[in-house]
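User: Here's a chain of 343 residues. Predict its fold as C-alpha cells.
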Amino acid sequence: MRKAWIVTLAAIVLVAAALTGVVLWQNSYDLREQRVTVPADGRLLEGVLATPAHGSGPFPLVVFVHGDGEVDATHDGFYRPYWEAFARAGYASLSLDKPADWLSRSMDDRARETTDTLVWARTRPGIDGNRIGLWGASQAGWVLPKVVARTPAPGVAFVIAVGTAVNWHRQGEYHLRSELRAEGAGPDRVAAALRAREATLALLRRGATYEEYRATADADPDLGAERWTFIGLNHTADASADLRAMPPVPVLLLSGADDLNVDGAETEAVYRELLAPGTLTVHRYPGAGHALVRTPVERSSWRLPLTALFAPRALFPPGLLADQRTFLEERKRGDGARSIPGR
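Assistant: Prediction complete.
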C-alpha cells in the first residue's frame, strides 16, 4: 500500500512538473521587456517597452491603444504574442497601463494621452522616431484617427486597427441586435429592447443624470454611475471626420467574421470611402470574434483560460499574427498597402 502511494505521488509530481514546464515554455517570448514611466496628458503612466531580443536599434515602434475596460500594459499577457511577432519583424512595442480613472476620460482625452506617448517615444535613443505607428483595438477606433489626423510631422507611420467601429450609436445597435439574435429573441423582445435603447439615448442626448436613468423602468441594474458618466462623455463619438482628415498612411484593418460587437463590413466600407486610395489593407478572419480570438475558444468558459495558460499563441485564428508581421515588414521596405476583401 505504501509503495503504491509513493508511486502515485511520484506520478503526480512528474505530471505537475511537466505541466509547469509547458506553461513556462509557452509563456516565454522572443523579446526583451522593460518597465517605463511615460508623461501623458498631465500624468505619469507606467508601461512596458518590448524590443527585439537582439540588437540595440533604433527600432521602429508600435504604440498600443487599448479598447474598453480596465487594462494593464500587457493586457494580462494577451499582448505578448503580438509583441513577439512584431519583434521578429524588427519592431519594438510600447503599451501603458490604462489610468485608474479611465471612466472619466473622453476619446479626446485618450487621443491626447496617445499623442504625448508618441512625443515621449521619439526621445528614446533606441527608437526610430520617424517610424512610429499605432495598434488599437475596439474602442481605440475612435482614438486612432484623431491621433493620426492631429500629429504633426513626422506624424504616424501606419495604423493597425483591430475590431474597430465608426459610429458609437450604430455600433451599439449592432451589438444589441447581435446579442438578441444569438439568444434567439423573438420580434416582440427585439422591438422592446430597441425601444428601451432609444429611451436611454434620449436621456443621454439631454444630459440626464445617473439618478434619472436609474429611475427608468428599463435601467440596467449592472450599469454604475461612473459608467453612465463615461457613456455620456463618449456616446456621440464618430470617427468619420477624423478618418477623412487623416494623411495618406498605410492602414491595416482586421476583424473577425463572428464579431457580435462591431459590424466589420460597415467599418471596412467607411474606411474604403474615406481613407486615401491605396492605403487600406483588409483581413477578415472566419471563426474569430471581436477580440480576434478563435470563436470556439472565446465562447468557452474553460477553453479560454486553459488556452491562454498553456498555448497563448493558439488563441488567435490562423494567419493573424503572420499577417501583421508581414504588414510591418512591408512598412520597413516601403511597400504600398494591399486591399484584400476577405479571407
